[in-house]
Specification:
The complex is a heterotrimer.
Chain A: H1 2-20, E1 31-36, H2 51-57, E2 65-67, E3 79-81, E4 84-89, E5 95-100, H3 114-124, E6 144-149, E7 154-159, H4 165-171, H5 184-189, E8 197-203, E9 207-212, E10 226-231, H6 235-243, E11 249-250, H7 257-266, E12 271-285, H8 295-304, H9 307-315, H10 337-341, H11 350-363, E13 372-379, H12 382-395, E14 400-407, H13 409-417, E15 423-429, H14 435-442, H15 457-468, H16 472-488, E16 494-504, E17 508-509, E18 528-529
Helix pairs in contact in A: 8-11, 9-12, 14-15, 15-16
Chain B: H1 2-28, H2 34-42, H3 47-56, H4 63-75, H5 89-93, H6 96-124, H7 129-143, H8 146-161, H9 174-208, H10 211-218, H11 223-260, H12 266-275, H13 279-307
Chain C: H1 2-15, H2 17-34, H3 36-39, H4 71-107, H5 109-123, H6 127-138, H7 142-150, H8 153-169, H9 172-179, H10 184-220, H11 232-235, H12 238-241, H13 249-276
The chains are: A alpha+beta, B mainly alpha, C mainly alpha.
Chain lengths: ~525, ~325, ~280
């Protein structure tokens, strides 16, 4: 009897040991070398809207809450604690209270308290003056009436209306908590956070260096000693250097599917992932200036676009086709294929659409011998230029003779503001796959990012209505309808939803990418190097 | 001699002054300044915030006032602050200058050490197959875009050696260090080498016909002595001039080569600063470049005076 | 006179073989540019997703680029753009430079002094840097690229022409012409100018090559000729250079085209210099 028991006990013990032992033990140490594409405009995440700043500097900070890195989709259900240990919503859904973690310190040693949360959100909502140069996501926080603290470890957000998406927005990479005691100017050049890595240096156009925070509040983390980003603007040089082993990881979403294929052909063991970057190519149409003050010409232009061709050329057919919201299955809020068929311009028969477009143009007096000349403005960057080339080719099918006007960033921007353009090819990223983010940033009357001055007050009421809905299915249906109306109105014709590639050597472990955004998983506290 | 020097220095100051006005105006001709770019990267406009940045940076002051601020600061050694990094311009430029300087020096060294001997060989072996081959080779060196050459070199390196000679602050091995310095230098210097080769050749040929060479020969010096002693020294005059002129052309090659090989030097930095409309950075960098060019020209002219005993300025 | 020009040609071919070679290259280049629509096998502008990055083969003789456009057809049409930029910039730069140099050398005095100083200022900046700032300011377009490349040429040409004019001015036949009562203007245009033509032609041909290279560099940096014009320089820029290993033909052929044309213009320029400028003959 005892022998049997003994063997059973041993078996159990062994089983427990086998189950409990991790698949591979994480190793401490090592410097992660990452290639970066573009000089970040500054080191302050709250002031910028580009992956150039977000990816390197997210590791310096913490949020109140984050998206669970193990969940591939960034969604409400995947929001997990970070600086907040728990939260609760009042009965009327208008008060969100967070309990904050104890014993957290800023990188300069000062303690983290609820006052820092209040400072940060007072700043981004514009309720207090700040020395931030820019505040790109002010519209995200339209619904926050006030932020109050109750002791050092409790903070409460008071909202005007219920807003399920608020937690989602707080979890994004662009929502770190800033310290009260550091100026905005310093955060741009030498940021102080509570995150797993401390800022070491930022040499313009050259490199960014972060070092391990030994006092990080998560025990045993981070595993890496340091992270180093080297800025290599020339993509071919970057790819060659990656393949030669000089770097471990590329900046996310910057490799085209074609390049990824090339990399994997050269280095079969390289890990690469091509996923939606939640970046879309869209057209900014100046409705106030000829020829696009004429709705018929706008419609003809919309009908000439062959979205599949964009996808085929720019991404080997991998790019998704959809409206303003990212298409499923990666996107949460995009149209189902059935619904998409009901949206004009998204039908499968491109030739028929183009014939319709030609008919419209012929009625207006244009033809193969009398083409409408048009300057297509765009930023002078390869991705923008490539998309414009394709657009110009498509426009020919409806008797529009396009010529690219590639503008340097400053000039592009100045012209947009002055409305000195006819149509612009625009590429824009959306920080989080969420309709509140998409609609309020880009389509509300008077929003700063609404370059085309599209204004539809009726539709805006619907924006607010969907923002308050708690029932996911009902909300999604409303979002689909809003999206369809936006496309019918030609507010900002969406041309493609791009995919981007990220590659890394197999010794980089613990890296988890999200399928519906590139901006939210760069804490690097779970990443380790096996070498 | 002294009066000549003083005159030249005064001229230098005048020229640099003119350059400062030119670059200052050129940057402000057209719409689009740093405030626009900063907002562009954030993807939105808030007129109030933008106006605040504009006035913080002094961009709404009148042009003469802005110019006076800049030049006044320059004369005190205060080059202003970069709009982008918000750090002093001097702090950004100074560490990068030695990197570009080293690359330029190595490129010139490569150009002279390959161009001069090849030019001499080509002249001495005039109209032989070797001469034709060298002439065609040098001509092709002048015809190739230098960034194309750089790209081809990179491709070849990765293909044949599996490594890539791009900039590395801490090269792993001695050979990696040599490759990192030498390969871009060769890519930049190739064009100058071709130019120097051609010039050495034609200059040598001209000199070999001169009377005084015949005189030297008649004095009984050996053929080799004639070639290398008298002819070479006199042939070097136009070459020295070219080195001066090439300094300006070299910079163009430096810009594209630093881009291809990812070298964090002043040339690549200039391109980025132009893209960002970082006025303080661009203005000061351009002034620096002009200063270097003008100084090199001055040095070359003085050297010229010493090498050619027949020329004495001011006489 | 048939025998006349044929024997002239044979003489030239024997005396300046490399020059004739250069002339042949340039002629092919110019003809391709002029008759691009006829010579090019396919449409250089139409994008075709299925042919993206096709290797050289029967349909796409030199392969296709990322958009599926035929490289050979784009090279042929690109000759037109390169020619336009090169000729335009050289003509503009040399024209203004010659006029300035002529006036400066002839009028002298304050005018000369000012022009000299302006020229020095412009020459203290490298060609590419000036062109960069100008195109970055004005925006990349065909016209702006031509202007940006022409402007730095002006001082070079002006100085050479000016020194020529200075030496010519003192020559006896000019004095003689003035003695017969000809106005200064007429003397300048009828007597002095033709004698500056030879060095001007040599200079212009020498500049031709460098304008093509400068345009290529500008386009490589993204600031030269924009779409839809197929510029050789831009074909080498980032979009193409990315595929440096999957599609090397995108890098090799445009680079070869540029090198070949510049090579030809240099050969021609050398030969012209030998023929027209006796002082430099070796």
């Amino acid at each position: 009897m005892s022998a049997l028991l003994g063997r059973l006990a041993l078996a159990c013990l062994l089983a427990v040991l086998c189950l409990a032992a991790p698949a591979q033990a994480q190793k401490q140490g090592g410097v992660l070398r990452v290639t970066h594409r573009d000089n970040p405009p500054s080191a302050s995440i709250l002031e910028e809207a580009t992956i150039s700043t977000d990816m390197p500097f997210m590791a310096v900070f913490n949020n109140l809450v984050v998206f669970d890195p193990n969940a591939r989709q960034n969604r409400l259900e995947a929001v997990v604690p970070e600086l907040a240990t728990s939260w609760s919503l009042s009965d009327d859904d208008r008060t969100l209270t967070f309990q904050l973690r104890d014993g957290v310190r800023w990188h300069d040693g000062k303690p983290f308290t609820s006052a820092d949360v209040k400072c940060t959100w007072d700043m981004v909502t514009g309720h207090t003056a700040s020395n931030m140069r820019k505040n790109p996501r002010k519209t995200w926080w339209f619904n926050i009436k006030d932020v109050t603290t109750d002791g050092d470890h409790t903070v409460t957000f008071h909202l005007n209306d219920p807003q399920p998406s608020l937690l989602v927005m707080l979890a994004g990479g662009f929502s770190p908590v800033y310290p009260c005691h550091v100026t905005a100017a310093q955060m741009r050049t030498h940021p102080i956070g509570t995150g797993p890595f401390k800022f070491v240096e930022f040499k313009q156009n050259e490199l960014i260096r972060l070092a391990r925070n030994p006092d990080y509040w998560k025990p045993g983390r981070p595993y890496l000693d340091a992270i180093e980003y080297t800025i290599i603007p020339n993509r071919s040089t970057m790819v060659l250097a990656l393949e030669a082993g000089k770097f471990d990881l590329t900046i996310t979403g910057e490799l085209t599917p074609e390049l990824v294929k090339d990399v994997q052909a050269q280095v079969p063991q390289m890990q690469c992932l091509v996923q939606p970057s939640n970046t879309q190519g869209n057209l900014l149409v100046n409705r106030e200036k000829p020829p696009f003050d004429d709705a018929r010409i706008r419609r003809a232009m919309g009908l000439s676009i062959d979205r599949k061709a964009f996808s085929d050329i720019l991404s080997l057919g991998v790019d998704k086709i959809g409206g303003a919201m990212l298409a499923p299955p990666e996107g949460i809020w995009g149209w189902s294929p059935e619904f998409m068929q009901t949206v004009p311009g998204y039908g499968a028969d491109v030739e028929k659409s183009r014939e319709e477009g030609r008919r419209i143009m012929r009625e207006l007096g244009y033809g193969p011998d009398k083409m409408l000349p048009l300057k297509v403005s765009t930023r002078n960057i390869p991705d923008y230029r490539d998309a414009t080339v394709i657009l110009i080719d498509h426009l020919k099918s409806v008797y529009i003779q396009g010529e690219m006007e590639a503008l340097d960033s400053a000039v592009w921007y100045a012209r947009l503001v002055r409305k000195d353009y006819s149509v612009g090819m625009n590429v824009q990223g959306t920080g989080i796959d969420d309709p509140d983010v998409m609609f309020f940033e880009n389509y509300t009357c008077g929003s700063e990012r609404n370059y085309t001055a599209y204004c539809n007050p009726e539709l805006e009421k619907l924006f607010h209505r969907q923002s308050m809905m708690k029932d996911f299915e009902a909300r999604r249906q409303l979002v689909w309808e809003i999206d369809r109306t936006l496309q019918e109105d030609g507010a900002r014709p969406i041309v493609y939803q791009s995919q981007g590639g990220t590659c890394w050597w197999p010794q980089v472990k613990g890296l988890k990418l999200a399928v519906n955004s590139i901006y939210n998983h760069w804490r690097f506290d779970d990443v380790w190097l096996d070498r | 001699m002294l009066s000549y020097l003083i005159r030249r220095l005064l001229l230098m100051v005048f020229t640099l002054f003119g350059v400062s006005i030119a670059i200052f105006l050129l940057l402000r001709i057209v719409p689009g300044n740093i405030a626009d770019i900063l907002f562009d990267s954030a993807g939105m406009i808030d007129p109030a915030e933008k106006q605040k940045i504009v006035s913080d940076l002094g961009l709404d002051l009148s042009l003469p006032v802005q110019y006076a601020h800049w030049i006044g600061g320059l004369l005190h050694g205060d080059l202003g602050y970069s709009y982008v990094s918000e750090k002093p311009v001097l702090d950004e430029i100074l560490p990068r200058i030695p990197i570009t300087g080293r690359l330029a020096a190595l490129a010139l060294l490569f150009a002279v050490c390959t161009g001069v001997p090849l030019g001499v060989i080509s002249a001495v072996q005039q109209n032989t197959w070797l001469d034709y081959a060298l002439r065609l080779f040098s001509l092709s060196g002048l015809s190739m875009p230098s960034f194309w050459l750089g790209l081809l070199i990179l491709m070849a390196f990765v293909h044949y050696f599996g490594t890539i000679p791009i900039y590395d602050r801490a090269p792993a091995t001695f050979w990696a260090w040599v490759a990192m310095l030498g390969v871009p230098a060769a890519a930049v210097g190739f064009r100058s080498s071709a130019l120097i080769m051609r010039l050495t050749r034609s200059s040598m040929l001209e000199v070999l016909r001169q009377d005084y060479v015949r005189t030297a020969r008649s004095k009984g010096l050996s053929e080799a002595g004639v070639t290398f002693d008298h002819a070479l020294r006199n042939a070097m005059l136009p070459v020295i001039t070219v080195i001066g002129v090439e300094t300006a052309f070299l910079f163009g090659g430096l810009i594209v080569t630093e881009t291809v090989f990812n070298i964090p030097g002043v040339a690549r930095f200039l391109v980025e600063a132009i893209r960002w409309r970082d006025y303080p950075m661009v203005q000061n960098l351009v002034m620096f470049i002009a200063f270097v060019v003008v100084t090199v020209n001055l040095i070359v002219d003085i050297l010229y005076m010493f090498v050619d005993p027949r020329i004495r300025y001011g006489q | 006179m048939n025998t006349g020009w044929w024997s002239d040609l044979r003489y030239l071919m024997r005396r300046y073989p490399l020059g004739v070679g250069g002339a042949v290259i340039m002629t092919v280049f110019v003809l391709a540019a002029m008759f691009a629509s006829v010579v090019a096998p396919l449409d250089p502008f139409s994008t075709n997703a299925r042919a993206s990055l096709a290797p050289p083969g029967s349909k796409y003789l030199m392969g296709a680029d990322m958009m599926g456009r035929d490289v050979l057809s784009r090279l042929i049409h690109g000759a037109r753009i390169s020619l336009a930029v090169a000729l335009g910039a050289t003509a503009l730069g040399s024209g203004f430079g010659a006029a300035l140099g002529l006036a400066s050398g002839y009028i002298g005095g304050w005018f000369d002094l000012i022009v000299q100083r302006l020229a020095e200022i412009m020459q203290s900046l490298p060609l590419l840097v000036m062109a960069l700032v100008i195109t970055a300011s004005l925006g990349p377009s065909l016209g702006n690229t031509i202007i940006a490349i022409a402007i730095p040429l002006i001082p070079n040409v002006a100085r050479v022409i000016r020194s020529n004019v200075l030496s010519l001015r003192e020559l006896p036949f000019v004095e003689a012409a003035k003695a017969t009562g000809m106005s200064e203007w007429r003397v300048a245009i009828v007597h002095v100018l033709p004698n500056t033509l030879a060095p001007l032609i040599v200079l212009a041909t020498a500049q031709l090559g460098s304008t093509i290279l400068t345009e290529a560099s500008l386009s490589f940096l993204g600031l030269g000729v924009p779409e839809p014009y197929p510029s050789w320089g831009r074909m080498l820029s980032e979009s193409a250079a990315e595929y440096v290993r999957t599609a090397p033909w995108l890098v090799i052929f445009p680079g070869l085209a540029i090198s070949l044309v510049v090579f030809g213009s240099n050969l021609l320029g050398d030969a012209l210099r030998d023929a027209l400028d006796p002082r430099q003959r070796d």
